[in-house]
Amino acid sequence: MRKLSLIILLAAAFARCSGSGAPQCTPYDAKKTLTDEKMEWFDDAKLGIFIHWGIYAVDGVGESWSFFNKHISHKDYMAQAERFTASRYEPEEWADLIARSGAKYTVITSKHHDGVALWDTRADKKSIPELSPACRDVLTPFVDAVKAKGLKLGLYYSLIDWSHPDYPNYERDGVPRYEIPEDPARWQKFLDFDNAQLNELIEAYNPDLWWFDGDWEQSAETWKAGELTAKLRKRNPKVIINSRIQGYGDYGTPEIGVPVVRPADRYWELCYTINDSWGFQHRDVNFKSPMMVLKTLVDCISNGGNLLLDIGPREDGTIPAEEVEVLEELGRWTGKHAEAVYGTRAGIPGEHVKAYTSVNSTADILYIYLTYKPVGPIEIKGLVDNIKRIRVVGDGRELKWKVYNKLSWTDVPGLVEIDVPESALDSAITVLAVETDGPIRLYRGSGQVMTMGN
Ligand code: GLC
Predict the structure, then answer these.
(1) Which of 272, 312, 385, 417 would be a feasible disulfide site paired with 279, CB 3.0-4.6 Å?
(2) Alpha carbon nearest to ligand 1 atom 9, residue
(3) pTM of the full predicted structure?
(4) 255 in ligand 1 pocket by Cβ < 6 Å?
C-alpha cells in the first residue's frame, strides 16, 4: 500500500516537472526511493548497535587478527578463555541501553574468526561454556532480552574459523593446512561444520538478520554461497543478509571509513567503532565524542543508509563508560528528533542547502540538520515548491522565512532564508522541518537570462 502511494506521488512529481518552460528539476529516483517490503524495517531503522564480545577482551588484543597477524601466538590467544568470566554480565541492561539509544536492531558476534562460540554449540568444543570460567551460554540470555525489548536481532557469524582443523588458512603468509582443490572432502567437512552451527543458531534464535564476515578468503562457489543463502531464505523468507557473502546479500557494508560519495547500493549500513577497535582494548582511548557520532549518524541518514555502531564490552560484561555516554546521548537526540530519523530517505543534493538533509517517506518534508551553530539565516536554493511551514523538530516552534529573487515572470525559484533563533538550538544538532505543498521538486539549472516579463 505504502509502495503504491509512493509510486503515485513520484509519478505526480514527474508530471509536474516536465511541462514545457518549467524549470529543470530532480524528482526522486523511484528506484532509490521505493522500499522492498522485506527491507522496510531495516531501511526505516537508521541506527543499530554492533557488539564485539569474545575472549580477546581479556587481554585487550585485536579480535582474532592478533594471532592471524602473529602479534600473539595462537596458544596465548586461546588461553585468554581461561580468564573470561562474564562475572558482571547483565544482558537485560545491555538490551535496555541499546533500546534507550534509539537503535532498532542489534548485531552480536556469535562467533568471530577465532572460532570461539558464545553459545553452547554442539558442533565444536570451542565455546565460552566449554572453555571459560563463565561456564555458560552467554548468547541466549542476550537474545531473550533483545526480543523482550522488541528489538530486531542480528547475528554476526564468521564464515572463516582460523582455529578449526579443517579450515585451510590460519595465519598471514603461513603455509595453509591444506589446499581445497586437493582435498575437497576435507573442505566439505568444514562447510558441514559451518552449516551445523548455522542450523543451531536458526533453531535457537531465528534471527532477523545474518551478518556474515570473512567471505573474502574464498570464492562464492567455494563457500557454496548460493546454496547457503537459499537455505536461510527458505527457512525465513523475511531474513535480511548483509553483503559479505560473495555477492549474495541484501545490503552493502562499508566499514569505519564514512562514505564521502553516496554509496551505489540501495541499502547500506556503515559499521563503525566508537574508538579504533571492535572489541575491548585497554590501551585504546581514542574515543569519539557523542557529537562526532551523532554527526556520523546524520551523515548516514542524509545518504540513505544506516549506522551500525559498535560497542566492545569487557570480559566481565561491563561496557566502557565512554561508550555508554555515546549511547545515552544518541538516545536523547533520537528521542527528540524521532520524525527526522526513523523512516526518512536520503536528502537532496548538497548544492541546495549547505547542510545534511533528508526527506520523509512522502518527500514533502525536507529535514535540515544543523551540525554547526548558524551565523545568520539558513539558505535553501532551487526549491520549486511552495513552503507551507517551517518548524524546529522536537521543539514545535514555527520559524519565519523570506523568499528573495523570486521574479514573477520566470520559473526559477527564489532564495529561501530561514531565521533560526538561538533559543531554538539543540545542544548538539538542531533539525528544521521544511513542509512543502507537494513532493519536493528542485531547480537544477545553471541560471538563465531573465527577459523582462509582465
Ligand atoms: C572486519 C574484521 C573484523 C570485524 C568486522 C566488523 O571484517 O575482520 O575483525 O569484526 O570487520 O565489521
Answers:
(1) 312
(2) 63
(3) 0.93
(4) yes
